[in-house]
Design goal:
59% of the residues lie in helices and 8% in strands. The chain has 22 helices and 9 strands. The strands form 2 sheets. Strands 1, 2, 7, 8 and 9 form a 5-stranded antiparallel β-sheet that branches. It has a 4-stranded antiparallel β-sheet with strand order 4-5-3-6. The longest helix has 39 residues. The radius of gyration is 39 Å and the shape is flat.
Length: 643
């Protein structure tokens, strides 16, 4: 049920501004609408502080906390230190990689130190280096010549000393300058960086123990930001301060008394919402419809305030559609069992409604799988072939169902139990497919008729409600037309179907735009009915996706069963287990995607459009301060006016 809303205006003395805001925050019922829109945005300083806090927490979440002495610094100093250390570590890691690259390039120089070359030069001994082909090393003539390293291109690095300068080199020898830095100094710098990185990492580990404090500071900062925005977005004059907003009608009745109880002199006016107003949407879920709230929260969609609450219809239809899309009792059992076994963990991470919806999906899928005799892709036909109940020895031989139903082995007994519990299973695969197609389009037509009937009730006693009578008749007639096209034959469609469709169309043509002249009424009614008329066919046919996706899920499961059986034949069932677990796990994941791609679509698009719901609402978010993190006289000031 969509909760009725009332608009509230509250004006107090400017001197009571902070007290009024605190009182409204403690009440937590007013969805504030800004009087001054420019003040409804956070200050840049607050946004920057929040961004730094989020970044610091993101960094610390990746670090294992370590117990140890941590200075009792304020959260802001912790944030700045974390960001400084993280930026420094990035620079140091980058520098360290560069140093190791340089050291690798200088490996040919060994442990030579540049200061040693300098001392030799100062004593009159100049060492020169040349690249010489290995085959011509014997042609080097000098006072002292020594090959000190091998170069990558097959040449040798030769150190030459000749105080007279009369040395001889073979043709092709090239001088090699000494490096600007020696390898030893580079490794020494790298060692120093390693030590700094170790110290900084240990410091971050210590600071990670303050994560809870920073999270509390983030929550407090969000409260302060909301407080500041509420304060600045109100009506501010020299003497008065006012706020406006929406609240549930029942809560609005005692608003003046609750403000007066706080001894805040204020003028309070409450008005019920009027035509043209756009209040926020607050849905009150009954206990049995509350699980569907998980879907609306996940999608972030809400009906408009003047639309209708479709949660009772969703909570019935969506699990049924999910069951048909998944189509496997084994998968349903796994989904429901997962929700039950891990209910606590899932509830803490995602909310209790998501656990309930998961279990409902699992149980609905389990029931549908039993009704269609499908367990992890295993059907009575699968058991019959595994037990040898076939008419012939060639691959693809037809199943001998008469022998199967009278058999006494494990495969026969199991197939007999599955058959008794499965009124929607048929031995002939083609008959089975057509049966599920029929169920899909019948459900689709019923779903759309319910949507139109709900819209009729919402419009009644307005004359436009009679247009819905025509659309309901058109939907039923369209089902009959589709039935002929799919199961009987396009050439056998009786003319009566077209006459009924034409008669049904007269209702929306005449009643869609009442209040206009006859000519305009018929013209606008006819023009606005053309697209919905085409949609009645396409919307009904759209429900065939329930059959198609469910059938695809079955064939994927069957394919992995065959693959697992072949692995077991060539190796062991132990080797086949990972194939089966992976295959069926993948299929369950694909089925989960199908629920959103198809099941949710049928409700959010086909059903909702026929029910007249456009999902144009925005959430009711009351201004609430569960615990104000500042005392009177210490209100937040993000670089604004001075106190």
């Amino acid at each position: 049920m969509i909760v009725p809303m009332a608009r509230a205006y509250i004006v107090a003395r400017k001197s009571d501004q902070d007290r009024l805001i605190e009182r409204l925050g403690q009440m937590g019922v007013l969805h504030v609408e800004p009087v001054e829109p420019r003040g409804a945005a956070p200050r840049e300083e607050a946004l920057r502080e929040m961004a730094e806090l989020n970044r610091a927490l993101q960094i610390l979440d990746l670090i294992t906390p370590r117990k140890g002495p941590v200075s009792d610094q304020v959260p802001g100093d912790t944030v700045r230190e974390v960001l400084r250390l993280e930026a420094g570590l990035r620079e140091k890691y980058s520098r360290l990689k560069e140093l190791y690259r340089q050291a690798q390039r200088l490996a040919i120089w060994g442990d030579m130190r540049l200061e040693e070359l300098t001392r030799l030069r100062q004593s009159g001994i100049a060492v020169q280096f040349f690249a010489v082909k290995g085959s011509r090393m014997g042609e080097v003539e000098a006072e002292c010549a020594e090959a000190v390293a091998s170069l990558p291109d097959g040449r040798r690095l030769v150190a030459v000393i000749d105080r007279k300068g009369a040395f001889t080199l073979p043709e092709g020898a090239e001088p090699v300058p000494a490096p600007p830095r020696d390898r030893a100094s580079i490794l020494a710098e790298a060692s120093g960086l390693d030590e700094q990185i170790r110290r900084d990492s240990e410091r971050l580990s210590l600071l990670a123990s303050r994560t809870a404090i920073l999270q509390a500071e983030r929550e407090a900062l969000a409260v302060r930001m909301e407080y500041d925005m509420t304060r600045r977005s109100g009506l501010i004059t020299e003497d008065l301060f006012g706020v406006q907003g929406w609240m549930p009608l029942d809560a609005a009745k005692g608003l003046a008394g609750r403000i007066e109880k706080a001894r805040i002199p204020a003028a309070v006016r409450v008005f019920e919402s009027r035509e043209g107003d756009m209040p926020p949407t607050l849905i009150h879920y009954s206990p049995w419809t509350r699980p569907i709230k998980a879907l609306f929260d996940l999608l972030g969609t809400l009906p408009g305030y003047r639309e209708m609450d479709l949660s009772p219809f969703f909570v019935i239809a969506l699990p049924l559609f999910a069951a048909m899309l998944i189509g496997d009792a084994g998968y349903g059992f796994c989904i429901a069992l997962t929700g039950l076994l891990f209910s606590g963990s899932i509830a803490r991470a995602a909310g209790r409604e998501k656990v309930q919806l998961l279990v409902i999906f699992g149980l609905a899928t389990l029931v549908w799988g039993v009704l269609t005799a499908n367990y992890f892709g295993i059907t009575p036909e699968t058991l019959a072939r595994a037990g040898g109940f076939v008419q012939g020895s060639h691959a693809g031989a037809p199943v001998d169902y008469q022998a199967l139903w009278s058999g006494a082995g494990f495969h026969a007994r199991t197939a007999q139990v599955m058959r008794r519990a499965a009124p929607l299973w048929r031995p002939d695969p083609e008959v089975q497919r057509f049966l599920i197609i029929k169920v899909s389009i019948i459900l689709g037509c019923l779903h759309l008729v319910i949507a139109r009937f709900r819209r009729l009730l919402a419009l009644f006693p307005d004359h436009r409600a009679f247009a819905e009578v025509g659309w309901i008749a058109a939907l039923v007639d369209m089902l009959v037309l589709i039935w002929y096209l799919l199961f009987i034959g396009a050439g056998q469609v009786p003319a009566m179907i077209w006459w009924i469709l034409s008669g049904a169309l007269l209702f929306p043509v005449w009643f869609t735009s009442p209040g206009k002249g006859i000519g305009r009424r018929v013209f606008f009614g006819f023009a606005s009915s053309l697209l919905p008329l085409v949609s009645t066919f396409s919307d009904t046919m759209s429900y065939l996706r329930l059959f198609a996706v469910g059938m695809a899920s079955y064939y994927i499961a069957m394919a992995f069963n065959i693959l697992g059986a072949r692995v077991a034949d060539t190796a062991t069932w132990f080797a086949a287990a990972p194939v089966l677990v992976f295959g069926h796990g993948l299929n369950i994941g694909l089925a989960g995607i199908a629920i959103f791609a198809h099941g949710v679509r049928l409700n959010m698009l086909e059903f909702s459009s026929n029910a007249g719901v456009q999902w144009g609402g925005y959430a009711y978010r009351p201004y609430a301060l569960p615990e104000i993190p500042f005392s009177a006289g210490q209100k937040p000031n993000f670089g604004g006016e001075k106190r």
